[in-house]
Amino acid sequence: MENIIINGNNLTLEEVIKVSRKNYKIQLEEEAKGKILDSRKIIDDIVEKEKVVYGVTTGFGKFSEVSITQDDCKTLQRNLIISHACGFGPNFSKEVVRAIMLLRINALAKGYSGIRLETLNTLIEMLNKGVHPVIPEKGSLGASGDLAPLAHMVLPMLGEGEAEYNGEILPGKVAMEKAGIATVDLVAKEGLALINGTPVMTGVGAISLYDAVSLLKTADIACALSAEALRGIKDAYDLRLHVVRPHAGQINTAKNLLNLTEGSTFVTRQGEVRVQDAYTLRCAPQVHGASKDAINYVKERVEIEINSVTDNPIVTREGDVISGGNFHGQPMALSFDFLGIAVSELANISERRLERLINYQLNDLPPFLVKHGGLNSGFMITQYAAAALVSENKVLAHPASVDSIPSSANQEDHVSMGTIAARKSGEILKHAQRVLATEILAACQAIDFREGFTLGKGTKEAYDCVRKHIKFIENDIVMYKELDKCTELVASGELVKAVEEKVEVLY
Fold first, then answer.
1. What is the domain count for the chain?
2. Domain residue limits at 379
3. Annotated catalytic, 54?
4. What separation in angstroms does the CA of 168 have from each of 76, 134, 179, 180, 320?
5. Which end of the chain, N or C, is less packed with Cβ atoms under 10 Å?
């Protein structure tokens, strides 16, 4: 497992996942070290000459009007961290914390923040040795960046707060000692460099984004299985129809559905069984495709943000220190609201296909996909549960970015709520994974009621993957266990991986 080289410029979404989820270690590029040292010299000069520079020789927020002496600079930075650690609620998962740490390191590695190299190395060492600060999920306004959660990230660096180490939650100082990492005394500008920026919202959202890309593929696989089970009309996926409305996502969805069902005798042509399918099958390219385009837009924004300087003020190569607003999370807030809406739509249409699979009034299959209906309820309540998740998603999909509450005595009078948007998108994603898993399981059950047909090249791989773990449901059983198994196939990416061994699935 090679170390991932960090320089602030070319970190990828895939590398974020390797570090956060697969525990890859990182290494600072040599050229980046020089830029960090140069940036620090500028800050040291400002402190030495007692120039008035926000966050270096002044207080923060509304206290920017208060000058701080050279002797008090260390106290200022420590006070910043301990006073700003005001988070609340459940703690972020280990993988989210690792993503947060990585993104803060990558931004600081660009050499525009004035942090000392040894301080940055402390954070890198914590990440590599698995000292994970305990960070509550709630408390960020998304401007001035993610102040409260990032303050919790820094506490163990000072020997304060709490951190997880080797699976145990410990006082920050104890965790650092056990890992053999020295704590630090922050000097001028360093506290602000560590907590002013967007790595929390971006880290949370980046993980959801990565899983959403897999979900886009899963949605097409689910639709193709339902099309097989319902003997859907493949003419609606004819590329001649889609190239005249050339949205990339729509075209890619149509290609996927054709490729997944290639060779199938379940699917039909228009007029063979019926003239038209319901929208949930017929309009899948348009609906799934719109979500693909939206999520690909978000991916472009996130890939910019993870390689950006988002703290304030920034130290330019020319020696100027400019106070601005790169900490403002609006670009991510809008993006993650968009992500949540796009993912919720995948669940919306999936739940309606599920209804079409189990409702005997809408198909020619046994009611609720069970042989002895009445004695058995079959898949009846799976649709209830899916509908509940879809309905909850509709509440969660309300944009966080349209809200703003002034803070810091109205100095910070417009905030993004981007971290809320990112957290909501993650919750929506989990719900959507469950809904799509339910559709997939129901489609496989429906397929087993039909005899004498052949599945398509891709749908057969999906069906076989499901059946390797979950058998046909003959009589009522404890249903959530089977749904849990299918949800894990979706969430882990195992289902997509099985299909992609035979068929390319575009997004």
1. 2
2. 205-500
3. yes
4. 31, 11, 12, 16, 44
5. N
